[in-house]
Amino acid sequence: MAARFSVARAARQLTSSATRRQSPFVCQFQRQQVQQRLFTVSAAVREKKYTEDHEWIEAAADGKTFTLGISEYAAHNLGDVVYIELPQVDLEISAGEAIGAVESVKSASDILTPIGGTITEVNSALEEKPGNLNKDPEGESWIAKIAISGEPEGKLMSKEEYTAFTEDA
Amino acid sequence: MASKRAVQVLRPTVNGFKASSVNIQRAVKPQITTRNLSTGIVRPRKLTRVPTTQIRRASSAVPTSEGQLGRTGLYELHAKHGAKFVPFGGYEMPVQYSDLSIVDSHNWTREKASLFDVGHMVQHDFSGPGAQAFLERLTPSSLSTLSENHSTLSTLLHPETGGIVDDTVITRLPNSFYVVTNAGCREKDLAYLTEQLDGWRKEHPDQTVEWKVRDNQGLVALQGPLAATVLERVLSEQSAGALKTLYFGQCMPGTIKGTDVEVLISRGGYTGEDGFEISIPPSATEAVTQFLLDSAKDELRLAGLGARDTLRLEAGMCLYGHDLDDTTTPVEAGLSWIIGKDRRAKGGFHGDSIILQQLKKKSEGGGVTRRRVGLTVEGAPAREGAEIVNEAGEKIGNITSGCPSPTMKKNISMGYIKDGSHKSGTEVQVVVRGKKRKATVTKMPFIGSKYFKAPAPEPK
Questions:
Q1: What is the ipTM of this complex?
Q2: Does residue B454 lie within any of the structural domains?
Q3: What are phi and psi of B417, to 5 degrees?
Q4: Does the beta-carbon distance from B103 to A80 stay under 8 Å?
Q5: One GO CC annotation, please (chain A) (predicted)?
Q6: Does residue B253 lie within any of the structural domains?
Q7: pLDDT tens-place string over residues A96-143
Q8: Residue B37 and residue A126: Cα distance in Å, rounded?
Q9: Does A101 lie at the interface with B, CB-CB under 8 angstroms?
Q10: pLDDT at B118
Q11: What mean pLDDT is predicted for residues B95-119?
Q12: Are B155 and B34 members of one domain?
């Protein structure tokens, strides 16, 4: 049953493209190109990144805490979200683990984390109003905050790469 | 874990829409013709109200045994309405359309009317002097007491074991039996029927049976409280009049208004609502469907497999490959009611010794070890594959279908549970993602059905 994309964890294909948080709909190519030159590869990890499993992560200013959520694309395709299972605060997690689940009318989806660490905060408001996940999945309706214990694993994509990835899907 | 990635919403492994075994190689080539049959269905000589471009034979095709996906005659119409397609039963079928979410489409069906393309299903005709006896050997239905233009739910059974090969609806037409089987079982059913018919012909050379499959014949399901109002509008005056006394479980030939197109209208469906399944000749399928949509712009919407699955689950109906399979008997599946009275007395169908024994009282060594039940589950929805456990944590069953019910706003599931725990009201637990959730065995259908029933019991 656990049909899920295998994450190519071995290959850390962290690309150098980096964008600040931006409108989910518009590709800001020019800005991206400028910023590409300003960031190093490791710094790029701090920018909002997407996984092949349709989660996003974004680093806080301290660079140690990441916020995790599901993408607009995922939320749209799941349809009406009716139930969210959030992880426990203080739970220790490893990269690649399911830390919760999103249930819509048509399917159940694990929330996978591409980073290991400790859960520091969860968006409890979603338990009361799971439907909010459809409204602002990449903003207000973030899922959890994680104090990281290592580098992210698996393939992470920039907004543009992710958009291209979902168009191919 | 019964978890799916979001993107797989677009792919075949979504719960409830699983593309079934279409790749089973067929050993024997069954007799299949695409000709129309002697059931009063004729090719249209003229079609008014629709542009000629829509009358052409649609690019429909049945799936091949090599795994090539088929398309129904309504594929292009679906695409035009923003359908999101998924592979289902060997066909590319719409799971939903761009105008409504699954929940909205579900509610629309319960409040107004929806049109489902079910042209992927397999429509058969069995005729000849041996047809009734042949089908009575394969199914536990009492076809001798089935009146003309009446239908019954039935099951094709495996010899000896009485396991269900497929569930089906059998209709007695004036000169044949019209049988509709599942798309997902196409290859399996065709191989089974071929084998069964070969055996029959050897044993009963005098009682001939002719079997034809209406390939590319259209089939649409019009479901919802406004279904009759909508259908009347596209029928000739005479057919519309006849519709008023067409009751649940009955069928009639109907003529499309302003045309010579004849369709077969069966009252019933897969949603628990009043409604019809309409079998349409290939050349007119798209035109008739468009005519229905155009005639009821405010009341009728296309609906896909997504809504069909939540609707049928609320109505407590089985989906083969999930809630029924080759190992399930009709008694275990809670379908004992389809076993005819005379069949209980005399048997004479596949698996009769096992099935009739199961029908007996426990004190007489009867009964079954597991039963299909409905469950309402707290918290997370329990979907196919989830385990049902008792207080002590022992496994006592498993879930075969489940979803959040848009109508009841509760999680509903269907599954098999150990005999003894099957009574409604029994409290059990269901394990979803490693956590036990409270669940209660609940009577099905989960919501009351709204069939258009005959005012008094009908004389047989």
A1: 0.70
A2: no
A3: -130, 150
A4: yes
A5: mitochondrion
A6: yes
A7: 999 999 999 888 899 999 999 999 999 999 999 999 999 999 999 999
A8: 57
A9: yes
A10: 98
A11: 97
A12: yes
- The torsion defined by the Cα of B80, B83, B84 and B89, in degrees rounded to 10, comes to -110
Among candidate residues B284, B322, B327, the one with its CA nearest the CA of residue B305: B322
Give all strands (DSSP E) within chain A, no chain letters: 49-51, 55-59, 65-70, 81-85, 92-93, 98-104, 108-112, 117-122, 144-148, 156-157
The answer to whether residue B1 sits within a structural domain is: no
Mark whether B129 and B267 lie in a shared domain.
yes
Q: Report yes or no: A74 at the B interface, CB cutoff 8 Å.
A: yes
- What pLDDT score does B2 carry? 35
Our CA dihedral for B92, B100, A27, A69, rounded to 10 degrees, sits at -100
- Which DSSP category does B8 fall into? G
DSSP for residue B9: G
From the CA of A53, how many Å to the nearest CA of chain B? 7
Over the stretch A19-72, which tens digit does the pLDDT of each residue have?
Answer: 233 333 333 333 333 333 333 335 555 689 999 999 999 998 888 899 999 999
Q: Does the domain spanning A29-168 belong to CATH 2.40.50.100?
A: yes
User: What confidence score (pLDDT) does residue B26 get?
Assistant: 32
Cβ partners under 8 Å of residue B254, min gap 6: B235, B236, B239, B242, B243, B262, B263, B264, B265, B278
Strands B177-181 and B122-127, bridge-based pairing: antiparallel
C-beta of residue B282 within 8 angstroms of C-beta of residue B60: yes
**Chain A residues with CB-CB distance to B8 below 8 A:** 3, 107
Per the prediction, chain B carries an average pLDDT of 88
Distance CA B269, CA B223 (A): 7
Q: Give the closest of B5, B102, B406 to A109, CB-based.
A: B5
CB B108 within 8 A of CB B306: no
C-alpha–C-alpha distance, residues B378 and B438, integer Å? 5
Question: Tens digits of per-residue pLDDT, B194-242?
Answer: 999 999 999 999 999 999 999 999 999 999 999 999 999 999 999 999 9
Contact B402/A at CB under 8 A: no
Beta strand B218-223 with B275-280: parallel, antiparallel or unpaired?
Answer: antiparallel
State which residues form the domain around B379.
369-446
User: Is residue B265 within 8 Å of B253, Cβ to Cβ?
Assistant: yes
> Is the pLDDT higher at B344 or at A78?
B344
B459 compared with B408, residue with greater pLDDT? B408
Half-sphere exposure (Cβ direction) of B109: Cα atoms closer than 13 Å: 37
Best to test chain B binding among A5, A77, A107 (most B CBs inside 10 Å):
A107
Mean pLDDT across the stretch B148-164?
98
- Total domain count, chain B: 2
